[in-house]
């Protein structure tokens, strides 16, 4: 039997009981009038989080597949893209582009620091052949919030199409997709929209469609092709808006969650995360921990914490799971073992969860005879 632990991971989080009930609904067809009511409401609510009038798609699969879809649909093999890489998921975007034979111009920053819009401006001047720029808004690998609005503005001034990985930020902080000039914006159901893994979403602007159409040889494959999804949305959109089977129960789950968030107020949802992150930051600082990312560009959705020299992050994480049934996040690559990450998704932002986590860490320090 699987042991349930309370989730403080960067995603997914523990979802509400109403979301779980939606998952237990008898399976619906992913087409037909009943489905279209659900689909249209889901798209309508997504627009409120995206702040967009652009085309929106519900795609089965993880959000990384949609990053793959965006880059493969916009840039031909042998073409050039500029990608901001200051953490694990920026590096993944680079790998996805390279997998299509695309030449990548990297824009980097030290781990724990945000991307610099002025360095972007310089890089675009030096690489005028770049047509597409890609950024990760919330780099969960380090818990940095990159300045998406400012980066997109620089790219837009240079006439570039902007692809934003907002997987771990949309729904947790404000994103003005249209006003900020984001041409393709990608997110997932299991992060700040507080549902389950399995479906993801992306918006596509008219400017991005122009680039898709400009060179038909950019159509890599079939399933992860924006052209395929627009074709079926156009031809079958009144009754079957996707080219493949979509998990109807996963859509019902995220629809249920978005209804709850909108009812309570999206701004209040943002504030919930900000409050939880401050409680964790201040609580762990009182226990002698240092935060990995300085306040001005620290994520309110996931908090990165430097481990104490007396033990590794992996040791702390294992004890919390085994002894207290609490799961925090580790780190990747050069940060592995050096920091741990505390997510504030779903129930992890509630006082009961927050108190339990901080008390458990305090107990661990006492057991290890570590001063605080």
Task: Name a few traits of the molecule.
Aspartate Aminotransferase, domain 1, 372 residues, Aspartate Aminotransferase, domain 2, alpha/beta, globular, seven-stranded mixed sheet, two-stranded parallel sheet, single chain
* Shape by Cα distribution: globular
Number of domains in the coordinates? Answer: 2
Terminal CA distance: 37 Å
**Beta-strand content estimate:** 15-25%
> Number of DSSP strands?
13
Summed over residues and divided by their number, the pLDDT gives a mean of 96
Number of helices: 12
* CATH architectural designation of the largest domain: 3-Layer(aba) Sandwich
CATH fold assignment of the largest domain = Aspartate Aminotransferase, domain 2
Biggest sheet character: 7 strands, mixed
Q: How helix-rich are the residues, as a percent range? A: 40-55%
């Amino acid at each position: 039997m699987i042991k349930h632990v309370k989730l403080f991971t960067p995603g997914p989080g523990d979802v509400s009981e109403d979301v779980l009930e939606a998952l237990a609904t008898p399976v619906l067809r992913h087409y037909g009038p009943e489905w279209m009511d659900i689909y249209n409401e889901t798209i309508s609510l997504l627009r409120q989080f995206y702040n967009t009038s652009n085309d929106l798609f519900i795609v089965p699969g993880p959000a990384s597949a949609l990053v793959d879809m965006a880059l493969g649909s916009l840039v031909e093999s042998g073409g050039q893209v500029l990608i901001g890489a200051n953490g694990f998921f920026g590096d993944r975007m680079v790998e996805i582009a390279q997998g299509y034979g695309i030449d990548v111009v990297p824009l980097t920053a030290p781990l724990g620091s945000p991307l610099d819009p002025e360095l972007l401006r310089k890089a675009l001047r030096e690489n005028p052949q770049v047509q597409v720029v890609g950024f990760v808004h919330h780099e969960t690998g380090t818990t940095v919030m990159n300045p998406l609005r400012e980066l997109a503005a620089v790219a837009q001034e240079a006439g570039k199409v902007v692809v934003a990985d907002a997987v771990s930020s949309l729904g947790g902080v404000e994103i003005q997709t249209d006003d900020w000039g984001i041409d393709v914006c990608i997110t997932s159901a299991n992060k700040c929209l507080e549902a389950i893994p399995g479906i993801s979403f992306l918006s596509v602007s008219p400017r991005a469609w122009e680039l898709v159409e400009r060179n038909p040889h950019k159509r890599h494959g079939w399933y992860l092709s924006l052209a395929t999804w627009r074709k079926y949305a156009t031809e079958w959109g009144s009754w079957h808006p996707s080219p493949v089977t979509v998990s109807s129960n996963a859509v019902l789950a995220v629809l249920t969650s978005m209804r709850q968030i909108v009812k309570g107020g999206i701004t209040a949802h943002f504030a919930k995360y900000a409050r939880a992150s401050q409680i964790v930051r201040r609580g762990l600082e009182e226990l002698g921990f240092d935060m990995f990312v300085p306040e001005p560009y620290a994520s309110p959705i996931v908090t990165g914490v430097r481990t104490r020299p007396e033990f590794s992050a992996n040791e702390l994480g294992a004890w919390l799971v085994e002894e207290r049934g609490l799961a925090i996040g580790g780190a990747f690559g050069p940060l592995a073992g050096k920091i741990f990450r505390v997510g504030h998704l779903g129930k992890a932002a509630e006082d009961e969860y927050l108190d339990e986590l901080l008390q458990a860490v305090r107990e661990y320090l006492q057991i290890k005879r570590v001063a605080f």
